[in-house]
Design brief:
Blueprint: H1 28-32, H2 68-87, E1 96-100, E2 103-107, E3 124-128, E4 136-137, E5 150-152, E6 160-161, E7 175-177, E8 197-199, E9 205-206, H3 209-217, E10 219-220, E11 230-232, H4 243-248, H5 253-299, H6 307-314
Parallel strand pairs: 2-3, 3-5, 4-6, 5-7, 7-8, 8-10, 9-11
Antiparallel strand pairs: 1-2
Helix pairs in contact: 3-5
Length: 315
């Protein structure tokens, strides 16, 4: 006896749709909870145990308690859980994972992200987070990515970078792109042990000693150095100029800060010295006044001795 085609209704033969999931980390559980139907292929034409797709096909000599589709879904769930939980290699929902030169690349470009995804695979070597709306790089944001070599954070809205933002990956990074953001300054400790080639162009930098120290220690990409310009600076004449050009002209922002610090310390020391001198003068004047009053008191006392002798004896 033959089963009916998908969608037909024959007595004694019930057909459930079958779906195919090409990727083991698709979402079979979510799909299985949906109503049966949709674009399903035709049911097998034979009611043999080999071809039945229904979980309760009740025909004489044709009974099957577990459908092939349900078994496939269960296997896909097991594989996905094993990969995601044991290896941590499933791709984040907002990203695409692929292979590049035999290494895993995680592509999250232009996905409207406002923060760095938490579930990036641990074996990621290339990570692209460019053209999003990320505003901050928090501490230990990439600490679990010990294989990371290239990190692209360009064309975001990054304003703040924590001191331990690249902790755990600094030694292995080869390229770090922070260009075209809203970065005004970057903490020096964030770049400690960082051997990566840095791209810092097209940011509203505040040219000061801290930025100068960062540039002294960082390995800048030669192609982007000229695009690091002073958006603000201690002196108006530096605004709008490339920072490298200002430094080549002999300007040293750190020496300006050192002179300012020296002047402040000198003023503070002079103030303390003036206070000490004032205290000593007041102390001496107070003692002289007390001594004068004491002498006048002694003169007023009745005595048979010559007042002059009494005074000399007291003194």
């Amino acid at each position: 006896m033959l089963c009916a085609e998908a969608g037909s209704e024959l007595p004694g033969c019930t057909h459930l749709s079958t779906r195919i999931y090409p990727h083991p980390c698709a979402h079979p559980v979510r799909e299985a909870l949906q109503e049966h139907g949709g674009d399903a292929g035709p049911a097998p034409s034979s009611c043999s145990g080999r071809g039945v797709a229904s979980s309760h096909a009740e025909l004489p000599g044709c009974t099957m308690t577990l459908s092939l589709a349900a078994a496939a879904r269960a296997a896909q769930v097991s594989i996905c859980l094993f990969l995601c939980l044991s290896w941590g290699s499933c791709c984040p929902p907002s990203c695409q994972c692929t292979e590049r030169a035999g290494a895993k690349a995680v592509l999250c470009s232009a996905r409207h992200l406002e923060e760095i995804p938490k579930d990036i695979p641990q074996d990621a070597v290339f990570l692209k987070l460019d053209t999003n709306s990320i505003t901050r790089i928090p501490s230990n944001a990439f600490r679990h990515l010990s294989h990371l070599e290239e990190l692209d954070l360009s064309r975001n809205a990054i304003e703040k970078i924590d001191g331990a933002a690249f902790k755990g990956v600094a030694a292995g990074l080869r390229t770090l792109d922070l260009s075209s953001n809203r970065i005004r300054s970057i903490p020096k400790e964030a770049l400690l042990m960082l051997n990566a080639k840095l791209r810092l162009a097209n940011n509203p930098w505040h040219c000061e000693c801290a930025l100068q120290e960062v540039l002294w220690e960082a390995q800048l990409d030669p192609d982007s150095v000229q695009d690091i310009t002073c958006h603000t600076a201690p002196r108006e004449e530096y605004v709008g100029k490339p920072l490298l050009q200002v430094l080549d002209a002999g300007v040293n922002f750190c020496s300006v800060r050192q002179r300012t610090t020296d002047v402040a310390m000198f003023i503070t020391m002079f103030g303390w010295f003036a206070m000490v001198i004032t205290y000593v003068v007041c102390y001496v004047r107070h003692n002289r006044e007390d001594a004068r009053k004491h002498v006048e008191y002694l003169k007023s006392l009745p005595s048979t001795q010559n007042p002059a002798e009494t005074i000399s004896t007291v003194l």
